[in-house]
TrEMBL record:
SUPFAM superfamilies, A to Z: Phosphoglycerate mutase-like
Cross-referenced NCBIfam families: sixA
GO molecular function per UniProt: protein histidine phosphatase activity
InterPro entries with a match to the protein in the record: His_Pase_superF_clade-1, His_PPase_superfam, SixA
Protein name, UniProt field: Phosphohistidine phosphatase, SixA
Gene Ontology cellular-component terms listed: cytoplasm
Pfam families according to UniProt: His_Phos_1 (PF00300)
Organism: Pseudomonas panipatensis
């Protein structure tokens, strides 16, 4: 299984509510750079946080890849969700190549939990960072970090 973890692109600093913050022009550019690193890779599904910036990120990636499926919106990918809960939800998924679009601190802690077995050893994820993990299934400590891409840093 391949699991791709993507943090949303740069978002506006303020909105009425945190969940309503939209991507900036720079954030959209970052996302498209990361989407370029997914080109040529098989993706079976895209799941995203319900927050506007994650939805916009997922849709940009979907369009850039020509992915014909819809973006799945799930309530368990928001910033303060528990990465252990994410693993429970992923346990029943059938996709073998899945992209998750979320936020810090969740996305980094989830990566750390999957790779190191501890959410306290998170993966550093700047805006629009893309981590590629591989393993038999999404189990704490049993996935390998194959690559990580940080827009503007490679």
């Amino acid at each position: 299984m391949k699991l791709w973890l993507l943090r949303h692109g740069e978002a506006e600093p303020h909105a009425r509510r945190d969940a309503e913050r939209c991507l900036t022009a720079h954030g959209r550019k970052e996302v498209l750079q990361s989407a370029g690193h997914l080109a040529g890779h098989e993706i079976d599904g895209i799941l995203a946080s319900p927050y506007v910036r994650a939805q916009e990120t997922a849709e940009l990636v979907r369009e850039a890849l020509g992915f014909e499926g819809a973006v799945g919106t799930v309530p368990w990918l928001t910033p303060d969700d528990d990465p252990r809960d994410v693993l429970r939800f992923l346990d029943g998924r059938t996709e073998r190549n899945l992209l998750l679009v979320s936020h810090q601190p969740l996305i980094g802690a989830l990566g750390g939990l999957l790779v190191h077995g501890s959410r306290n050893e998170g993966i550093a994820m700047t805006t629009a960072s893309l981590a590629e993990l591989e393993g038999e299934c999404p189990v704490a400590g049993l996935m390998t970090l194959v690559s990580i891409y940080h827009p503007g840093h490679s």
